Amino acid sequence: MNDKMRHSETPAATTGTPGTPGTEMVEPSRFRIRNVRIDGRGAEVRVPCGGAYQVTFELLHDCRLCGNAVNQVIVGLAGEERAQASVWNGKQRSGGALLSVNAGTPVAALAEDNPGPAEWVTVSCDIVVPDGPGVHSVRARYAQAYQGRLMTPQGRSVPQPEYQEVLGWWKVDRPEGPGPESTIGTIAVEG
To answer: pLDDT, tens digit, for every residue of 126-170?
Structure first.
């Protein structure tokens, strides 16, 4: 599979868990997520214990209304105070060349800036679930902090810190955090 696919290859949005073929999570006017895999499996997994699990998915960021803002996609667990990871950082559209935004300032970061049509990109991060039995919804939302990580394969080849400010966007304008409509996967801890 290519890490980047043209926006024109996008099927119509449907309902259901984004790891199920043909389904997507949609953040209106901003981004879409599909083909979620947790530890190389589907979007809904059972695990024997808590710990870190790799979450990988395809992302299409296409925000014509975002102007010249630097945008992020962040991921975490429902009910937590902060996101756990930022996975995409860029301008209006995903895909395109890597660049440094805000270069030479304290808020410089690696980003994508695609002058053409938005492209699907593959991103990944680790999500930590607590020990003890329970079902944990993995959710995603947008942010507009100055910095975030770019966790595409090309972005992961460049060392990047986990910027803390962007993780605090988890509850900005959503006091309870991202709702069920933002769910991209589920991790069920059995023991």
So the answer is: 999 999 999 999 999 999 998 999 999 999 999 999 999 999 999
Short-list 34, 181, 52, 24, CA closest to 126: 52
5: which strand partners? 120
Q: Is 68 exposed, middle or buried (0-12, 13-18, 19+ CB in 10 A)?
A: exposed
Alpha carbon distance 165, 120 (integer Å): 26
Per-residue pLDDT tens digits for 22-58 = 689 999 999 999 999 999 999 999 999 999 999 999 9
Interatomic CA distance for residues 77 and 188, integer angstroms: 12
Kindly list the strands in the beta sheet with 97-101, ordered across the sheet, starting from the edge strand earlier in the chain.
44-47, 183-189, 134-143, 71-77, 85-90, 109-113, 97-101
Q: Where are the domains of the chain?
A: 4-184
CA 59 to CA 72: how far, in whole Å?
11
Give the number of other Cβ atoms within 10 Å of residue 173's Cβ. Answer: 6
